[in-house]
Every structure is written in structure tokens, then in C-alpha cells.
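Re: the request from the purification team.
They wanted to know what the chain is likely to look like in 3D before they choose a buffer screen. I agreed to run a prediction and write the result into the notebook, where they can find it.
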Amino acid sequence: MRPQLLSETLKHLFKHQRTVCVEGSPGGGKTSIIRQVAKDLGVAYIERHLPTSLPEDFGIPYPDSASSTFSFKLPDWFPVKGQAPDEGILCIDDRNQASPDLQKILANICQARNLHGVELPDGWQVVSTGNRQQDRAGSNRVLSHLRDRETVLELDTHLDDFCAWAMEHNVPTEAIAFIRYRPDLLHDFDPQKDISPTPRSWVEGVFNLIGAVPSEAEYPVFAGAVGEGAAAEFTGFLRIFRKLPDPDSVLRNPTTAEVPSDPATLYAISGALANRAEKDIMPNLVKYLARLPQEFSVLTMTMSMRRNNAIAGTKEFTEWAVDHQDVLF
């Protein structure tokens, strides 16, 4: 299931408080999507990492000094009916890596909606995440009775959804242009390799570090996050991007500026021009885009509009959109 559809599905399932587990290979953004869903819904959010927990973290026997009985003292994070907000999401992260004892506790919370007899608020949903056993991420076999108490949704990486997210979160346009150029490298997870490119490793280990280290250190730093092959391709793309003609010069001379012929440079110039997206450059930008292959004209305008949606109110954008109305972006 692509991220955008998963997000919408979780929002619908929240209305029914249906227990859900989101599974997929490492680095796909499972937990981030659930966190964003809670934010979009405007509900409370609690996240617990199950593999680093102990059964005692979910409650310990506590003697009642006034009698010979004992009750359970619960952790302060557990949302208690009547004390916690009325609506929320309890996210149990990496539950497939947890021990059977912890899975049994989770199964009871999912089905009975209580912890040692203390009720979960009616408006709370339990959502967990997990890697699959074939991912070799230390996942254990999930207990059958836990599986029977939830809906399992598998997250798939989707290029358009990732690029939309990246533009909304200020990922450099040259990075987005590269992923458009080499989409198969976005999530090329291989459990047989020590390091593989994933959306998480690209963003946290590469894209966020562009310009943060000396240029001669970029390749080893990036290779340490996404692997040697992916890092070599990206640093090569960066060299092309940094040797492009000055985008300002292109925009000053849109009818005579050189139009690249090779795909890598076309992707790079698309990203460079999108960085300049402002209302006042739209007349010349549209003139230059008219000289590009349609695929790159659309790519440049898509990234430009997501970077600065104010350009959508210009006459030039409207005219361009009419000419490309058969293309969704």
C-alpha cells in the first residue's frame, strides 16, 4: 500500500478504533506516517518501543497497605480512561522484534482494551509497526492470537508520494531531482547487504548532510548511509548539478540558453530552476520550459509549485497549465 493511501486508510480505521499493524522493510517511514496521521486528526499520540521494554514496564504488583491484597501500578505513559484525552493513537513500535511475553501483553491491550484491568479510553486506537522476518531485522514470529486481533497493512515505497513529502519538508531539490532520475535507488533494501538505500537513510544520512561536510568527504559519508553504489551515483549527480550553467543566467536568457540533451543533466537543471521559483521569474521560466522535453517541463513546474505555491496564481502558470492539462502532476 502506497504511503498516501495508507495514511488515508488509517484515518478511516481510526473512527472504528480498529487495531492495525503496519509492516514493511526497514526505513520506509512506517512510524512517521502514523505520527503524522495523529497530527492530521488532531488527536493525542503516545509511542512506545516494544523491543527495548520489559514486561514490568507495563505494570508491577503493588501492595495495598490497608489490606492483604495488591493491585498493579501502571506506567505513567499508559492512557487511562477518564484521565487521558478522549481520543488518541497508541503506537507500539517494532513490535515484531519483541519477545513472546511482550506480544502477549500487546494482544491483551488490543482485544480487551485494558492493561491489568485499567481501561483504555474508548476513543483510542492501537497501531503497531513491524519489519518482516525476511528483512532480517531481528523480527520474531508474531503470535497467532495477536495476528488474529489486528488488521495488517503492508507499506510500499512510492516515488510520487516520497517526492511530495520531500518537497513539503524542504528536502533540497537536487536530491529530489536525483531520486526522480534514479527511482529504483529510493528503496533498494537488500537484507544480504550491511547497508542499503532506504527513504530514511537517504533523508537522514545523505540529503540532510548536503553541504555539511567537505566535498571530498561526501562520498564516504554518503556511502556510510546508503552504500557505495548509491553514494557513487549521487555524488556524480551532484557534480553535474554543481557544474550547471548559472540558473539565473538561464532565466535571463530563456530563449537562447543551452538546453541539455542527456537525462542526468536535464534532471539536474530541473532541480536548479525549481530552487528559483518566484512569481517574478515566471515569464522567463515558462519560456525556457517550452524548450524542454515535456517530461522535464512538467517535472520542473511540479517542483517549483510545491516549493512556492504562490506561483500558481500567476498568468504564466495558468497558461502553462492549460497547455499541459492532459498531464497530472
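For the purification team: The CA atoms of residues 302 and 329 lie 6 Å apart.
Please add any questions underneath this entry.
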